[in-house]
Amino acid sequence: MTRPARDRLIAVAGLTGIWVLLWGRPTWINVVGGLLVATVILMVFPLPPVTFGGRLSLPGLLRLVSRFLADLVVASVQIAVLAFRFGHVPRSAVIAVPLRVPTDLNLTLTAEALSLVPGSLIVEADRARGVLYVHVLGVRDRAEVERFRQGVLELEARIVDALGSPAERRLTATAPTVREGSPS
Question: Which residues cross the membrane (predicted)?
Fold first, then answer.
């Protein structure tokens, strides 16, 4: 089976799984309906090719998941504290974060991981330049902006460590934190 055909089958399976989850029960009608809807969607709105050139690393994946869960808990507590501080208006910022591995897959995974953590939301993803624009709550000064940007780059490094190729791992280990000419 060719790679594009395999990628389409994976996309159909994923969309069908989401369809079944939305209906709440895995009946035959839901599965067949999901397959039909997924096939039509992929024919009408073809997805750009996203290739996976890396290798799954179990230790890297465990680090990624454990740190993600810890970040999820910490961010939830921080947002709860912000929500219950009466009379305080939290400051926010939109921060541009140029990724060191600007592949479509890395851009998507990093954006999804950031969006799942409370207090941060992807405003835009510049696919051509590999830059994520992130809205962040509770930013008070430039130092916090830089800490958040560095945190995003560390998240990217954990994702690449879990799923990336050796060349991508070298990029996250040796590349500067902010590329020249990138917006701040």
Answer: 31-52, 64-84
Query: Can you say whether the dihedral through the CA atoms of 26, 112, 155, 102 is positive or negative?
Result: positive
The sign one gets for the Cα dihedral 145, 159, 47, 20 is negative
Domain ranges of the chain: 3-44, 58-174
Q: What CA–CA distance (Å, rounded) separates 140 from 145?
A: 8
Residues 6+ apart with CB under 8 A from 148: 95, 120, 134, 136, 139
Answering whether pTM is above 0.85, one says no
CA distance linking residue 89 with residue 69, whole number of Å: 27
Beta carbons of 133 and 120 less than 8 angstroms apart: no
- Kindly report the number of other CB atoms within 10 A of residue 156's CB atom: 26
Alpha-carbon distance of 48 to 34, in angstroms, equals 21
Long-range Cβ pairs for the range 48-52 (8 Å, 24+): 48/104, 49/4, 49/7, 50/7, 50/104, 50/105, 50/108, 51/3, 51/7, 51/105, 52/105, 52/163
